[in-house]
Amino acid sequence: MNELLVLLLALAWIMIGFLALGLFALARQIGILHERISPLGVLPFQGGIKVGEKTKPFELKDIDEGRSPVRIGGEHPLKKDSLVLFISPRCPLCKKLLPGISTLSRSLNDIELIFASDGEDRSEHEKIRNLKYVSPFPYVVSRELGVFFGVASLPYAVYINAEGKVMAKGLVNSIEQLEGLIEHGRSPKNERGRWPDSTLSREG
């Protein structure tokens, strides 16, 4: 009788263990799904230049002073589109997005990718600038640039065509959203800048 009781208890503990593992796996999947679909807040500030408007040209220093100045906006001298991705060294979501940039950049041969940020702590910028996902691309620090494009939340992307016109812009919480913004910016059908995702900018 005692042996049967011990066996039943052992089976019960094994079942409890499997149940705990199942709950842990379920919670992890819910967390991953939440990160993928959560808008993480609607963009609260719609200021700055509007989609469809032409940008004025900015000529800014790369944080790596050995590199050439970075031109953003205006007509591109090489007739290339540009993608400006605003990030911050203190933005956890930005850091999470960066590894995906390495893969995405392989399909961006016809687009100039530029990282932009704000803040006075140069050492923090240099630290993120030296990451392998960021180092191949220009990196500028300019508060004026962020204000001009109406950046209120990060990470934030702005797609500018070769003529200097803003084709799409908005908060991008994932690589999937960034890819969607790029496709939207590339499509000539989207001249009016409409966008189905509420986290991204819409033309009024």
TrEMBL record:
Matches recorded under InterPro entries: Thioredoxin-like_fold (IPR012336), Thioredoxin-like_sf (IPR036249), Thioredoxin_domain (IPR013766)
Organism: Methylacidiphilum infernorum (isolate V4)
Domain of life (superkingdom): Bacteria
Protein's name according to its UniProt entry: Methylamine utilization protein
Boundaries of every Thioredoxin domain copy: 49-187
